[in-house]
Amino acid sequence: MLDTPRFRFALVAHSAEIVECVRRVARDEDYDLECQVATFETVVPAARKFLDEGREVVLCHGGTGKSITRAIGHSVAAIERTDMDVIRSLRMAGRLSSHIALAAFLEEHHDLEMMQELLGVKIHHITYASWEEMFVKIRAAYDRGVRVLVGGGVSKHYMESLGGVGFVIEPNAHSIRNALEDARAIARRKRVEDARRADLMTIFKHVQDGVVCIDNERNLIFSNSKAATLLHLPGDSQADILPGFYDKLLLVDVLEDRVSRHDAIVEIAGEQFVVTAFPLLVHSKAPGAVAFFRDVPSLQSINRKISEKLYDRGFVARSGLDDIRGASLPIRELKRKILRFGPTNATVLITGETGTGKELVAHALHTESGRRNKAFVAVNCAAIPPSLMESELFGYDDGAFTGAKRGGKMGLFEMADGGTIFLDEVGEVSHEMQLRLLRVLEAREIMRVGGTCIRSVDVRVINASHRPLKELASAGRFRMDLYYCLAMLSIAVPPLRERQEDIPLLLDRVLGQYGKPGRVLSPKMLKALGRHSWPGNVRELLSLIESYLVLLEGQEADESLFSELFREAVAAAGARPPEECRPEESWADSGLTLKQSLDRSRLSLIRQMVGQCGGDKHEAAGRLGVSYTTVWRALHEQGLG
């Protein structure tokens, strides 16, 4: 273990007698003691110099101690002046005169009556609060005929300068040892504080925030290099320039009212910063204030990194445009809108019946945007209790409510910062929450529950609802202003009954997932599927087919099993939509097999893509994700190559 460094003390006195008394006692091995006899004018500067040069504590005695303590206020150990010290000096003075002046600071109290009676002398008590007052009173006593004085070094020297005799009140060994022990205790505390301060300075030097700390007189205590970098300060004049920024960094306000400021947005020289400033409270007093600040762009960068982390943790869009299966005109129009709307940052409202695939569209919009590699956070508004909706979406600060997580919690909007948030079933939120959403959509700003600061979020908002929001808004059951914000762009997902020609493509995919051949669905079964109105849309279709494939034994069609499941599905769906909602002619009426229907759908899709590409088969093949040979063969077989 390393040896503890020796203590480094200093003694400042007005007389050599005091120095000699202390030296006789101060012979311990755990400290170094440097002594200096100072004049009235130099006593305080001498003490300051000792401390500035690394002496840990200054020892002093009598009036000297009062002066140094008042001027410096710390790192001072006073050698106590006792009644016995005074009596000893009075006794020596009494050998020369029966009238003795006793000079002492106003705060010193002695039993003068006892001393006079014990020594048989007349004591002329001179009390003073300043050196000037002491000089005046000693002169007055001298003029009254008092020629002998007992006191400190300054008073002794002054009496002698007038022609009298002075005796210094010398401290006793016990008082000196007590003062040295006090000095050790002060030095130990300072070392602990210095170690803590050094740790803090090391931390402050390496944090990414700018740090500025000032005392109650607005003197700079500390600033780190990051503060100079953020404020563009030259390295050789920070202390001179920094005071001009105290007001902007809210330090002046904090010193005046002792109220902390958290995450305040301020502008300095055209740049925006987030500032947190608070008082340095010690025993209910504010000896200073400290400000931590960071430029807004760096915080936005951190938020983006958080968003990327969330992306890595699974907050991602798992579907794209290719996952929306179909070649019908409604689906082609839907995909065209996705390609047009995806790259924008505009808010999109997706409408459609339950089971049509609104979330697939939301995922596709995200993957077609510049935010595709950032977080995609999906929220089912209907699944979150109204009492929790606000804290889930916007987060909460520490202590916002009973049971709140210590340190607060980031809300879903913050998690999606830099990416996309998908609010499914947005029509189910309460009227109060509609108002909060309106502010977010208009300003892209949020406030956590229990928080006091506004947080900006860079998030693209996609919404979905199966309810007619515009009709609800017209009826006063949904905020009209919110509806206009939600429906800046709108996409209607067609129901399955309006695109029944896409059923073969949907079936082909699910058959592939279960490893079943197309022959497990006979023409009769396909015809039944084509005639159903599908009120549950794609979700209902897939549910039926997956149930059939799971229960199917073998690789051949089982019409009995299918009929049983199909009747149950039709019964569960209830009444069908009106006949006019169904197409007059369905692919199922043609009597084609599933393979024939798939071939027809593929050919239609290839022809449409070649047309969109201006006849360029290579480009069409690339966009379809197939080889050029596949495109050429399909067209050639139909005489279109």
What would a concise description of this structure say?
It contains 26 helices and 22 strands. The chain is α/β, with parallel strands linked by helices and 641 residues long. It folds into six domains: 7-80 and 174-186, Rossmann fold (3-Layer(aba) Sandwich); 97-167, PrpR receptor domain-like (Rossmann fold, 3-Layer(aba) Sandwich), CATH 3.40.50.10660; 210-299, Beta-Lactamase, CATH 3.30.450.20; 314-492, Rossmann fold (3-Layer(aba) Sandwich); 495-575, Helicase, Ruva Protein, domain 3 (Orthogonal Bundle); 593-641, Arc Repressor Mutant, subunit A.
List the helices and strands and how they pair.
Elements: E1 7-13, H1 16-25, E2 31-37, H2 43-52, E3 57-61, H3 62-72, E4 76-79, H4 83-93, E5 99-105, H5 112-119, E6 122-128, H6 131-143, E7 148-151, H7 153-162, E8 165-168, H8 173-206, E9 210-215, E10 220-223, H9 225-230, H10 238-241, H11 251-257, E11 261-268, E12 271-282, E13 285-295, H12 296-312, H13 329-341, E14 348-351, H14 358-367, E15 376-380, H15 386-394, E16 395-396, E17 409-410, H16 412-415, E18 420-424, H17 431-443, E19 445-446, E20 455-456, E21 460-465, H18 469-474, H19 480-486, E22 489-492, H20 503-514, H21 523-531, H22 537-551, H23 559-573, H24 594-612, H25 617-624, H26 628-637
Parallel strand pairs: 1-2, 1-3, 3-4, 5-6, 5-7, 7-8, 14-21, 14-22, 15-18, 18-21
Antiparallel strand pairs: 9-10, 9-13, 11-12, 12-13, 16-17, 19-20
Helix pairs in contact: 2-3, 6-7, 17-19, 20-22, 22-23, 24-25, 25-26
Classify the secondary structure makeup into a structural class: alpha/beta
The name of the CATH topology of the largest domain is Rossmann fold
Strand order of the largest sheet: 10-9-13-12-11
- Tell me, rounded to a whole number, the average pLDDT: 84
- Count the domains: 6
Indicate the radius of gyration in whole angstroms.
45 Å
Q: Report on the biggest sheet.
A: 5 strands, antiparallel
Q: If classified by CATH, what would the architecture of the largest domain be?
A: 3-Layer(aba) Sandwich
N-to-C terminal Cα separation, in Å?
90 Å
What's the β-strand tally?
22
Strand percentage lies at 15-25%
Helix content: 40-55%
Q: Quick one: CATH class of the largest domain?
A: Alpha Beta
Shape: rod-shaped
CATH superfamily heading of the largest domain: P-loop containing nucleotide triphosphate hydrolases
**Number of discrete helical segments:** 26
Unreliable parts: 575-587
